[in-house]
From TrEMBL:
CDD domains: siderophore_interacting. PROSITE patterns: FAD_FR. This is FAD-binding FR-type domain-containing protein. Belongs to the SIP oxidoreductase family. Gene3D superfamilies: Nucleotide-binding domain of ferredoxin-NADP reductase (FNR) module, Translation factors. GO terms for molecular function: oxidoreductase activity. Residues 13-136 form the FAD-binding FR-type domain. InterPro entries: FAD-bd_FR_type, FNR_nucleotide-bd, Riboflavin_synthase-like_b-brl, SIP_FAD-bd, SIP_fam, SIP_rossman_dom. It holds the Pfam family SIP.
Amino acid sequence: MTTHVHTPLRHPLVFRTLEVQRVETLTPHMRRVVFGGDELRGFVSAAPDDHVKLFFPNSRGEIVRPAIGPDGPIHAPGVDYSPMRDYTPRRHDAGANELTIDFVLHGDGPAASWAAQAAPGQTIGAGGPRGSMLVADDFDTYAMFGDETALPAIGRWLEQLPAGKRAVAFVEIPDDADRQTLASRADTTIHWLPRGGADAATGTHLEQALAAWTLPAGETFCWIAAESGRARRLRQALEGRGVAKDCLKATGYWKAT
């Protein structure tokens, strides 16, 4: 078996103010926001599953970020800090100076609520990415398992894969109308798994699809992103089938409360 070498990269931590350039409704549960602004220049995102921390307006409509100390963020008592969430850079176009973020519209959380009303000219804060993990490019097949929160990373990964590679994606989505058109030069198969409106935290479509899936011939890298508990169980299922650590990455993109 080949020893695959993944490359970690560290980036300087930079905080930016981003300005909304345009918005687009992709599906009933996904809204795309394209950001720009002078402070976006120099932005770097090297891997499909990078994340940036976005800072949304506080109760007074202000962007208030914590100070960063040697041990992490410093929150002073009594300060109305901005709500913050991690998001995947769906696309970065340095030439156009644009950053695209796709927001899942689910409930009334600070990020989803902001994205639902986002309009050109509005601003938010952003920090990072602080690092990237470049997955080895010598696998024959790249297999991806994720819910709707993983779609931005899956879409970006498929777009970046070259011809000659194989890719298979299992994507659990709220409803059939949430399918997206995802382009790739790789030989790609996408399995859409609509939940029919059921809760993403307790869904089982990904687990059932994995149980029925046969690992393809050759070397396969498996990537998982979903609710934390489900991501852990999916990883354990693949480990139980003999998938090695350097051929597997699983991340909890959110946690059920």
